[in-house]
UniProtKB/TrEMBL annotation:
Organism: freshwater metagenome
Sorted UniProt keywords: ATP-binding, Nucleotide-binding
TM ranges: none
One cellular component term from this protein's GO annotations in UniProt: cytosol
Protein name per Swiss-Prot or TrEMBL: Unannotated protein
Amino acid sequence: MKNLIAALGLVDWEAQFVSGLGHPMFGLQVQRRCVDGVDIRAAIQVSDCQAVLVSDATPRINQDLIAELADKNIKLIAITSDVDHWQDLGASHCIELDSNNPLSALKQISELMSDEPQPVEPESVPKGLLIAVAGFGGACGRTMAVKEIGWQLSKLGSKTCLVDADTYGPSLDQELGFEPNQNGLLELCRSIERKNVSVQTHFDLLPEVSENLSLVAGLPRISRWTDLRVSTLRELWRKSRETFDVVVADVGAVLELDHSLMHETSLPRRHAASLTALEAAAVTFICARADNVGITRLVRGYLEFHELFANSEVHVLLWGVVNDAQSKDVRAAVSRHTGIESIFETSYDFEITRKALQHGSFVSKLDSKNVIAKEFEAIATMLSKKLEQQNKTPLQLKPKRRLLKRAA
């Protein structure tokens, strides 16, 4: 006996159809009747079912719900007069509605449900390395770190992409001298949502900063964060790692746990871009100013949100170190209070950073012998070795997705 959830909406044949599904010859049982997509999402949390029936009249059905059903290995069967619409949403089981005899779909549903369930082949983990650059309370030097790490990795031969995922103040394209209307985060997410075959084309058409270095610009207006959805962003990080050897993401400096991500994944969330990037990142750099204010923000933020970094290798990047005594003190403070041993530091050279910003370029490109360039070269070498080691390991299987939880 197979269990179903029926959510056919306000159609005049709904009651008769549900009654027909219960006939013993079909071996089906309608476990629950739902009114819309929100009701379906609640029902699948408490019901053991193998399929959900919907129609063109079922409200609030979107790609996120269909993806959630697929993750739970629950079939979505759409009885529809517009098959293309449902296929665009991602539904793989569609039955054309016969308006003269809607009950004719009963037999097709029975045949779909009687098929032996096919084992779900686990997806291989993309070979690309995702690096998240984050911080707390401003995170001095975050965007510059993204630029310099990306430049150095591209010079080492890695196909690299810079992604501006800061939903509060994106500036990466501006710092590199690009127009704001380039292919960016919003356009890629829209293409993924439409399940458009041109997603790869969008990646291929990304503006090239230099050889082996591409740019995904941030939101054209910060108010457009409402167009970014959790499931789409997760798919974006996966596809970007399939396309590039290394993806360096600026995830902003305002990190906050959004508890609703645990349940309402279909709704837009202000921190979705940052949280999904941290969730997928293999390496995370936390930037902070090397003074009492910067270190305090770093320690407090890390202790409060340490679970965000549970799946990645965490490094600290301290800015504005002026002498050995200061270096020793701040390193000791960070290690003592956070337990993080991998700490990089860099000095602050106002003139060279001003020149790089003025020319829309990189410190490492303008002066490869500068101390800042040498420091980022060392970081890039370390990351390049990690990428080599990662690609030498046997092909891994995609781990089960873990929803973000509240830090203790």
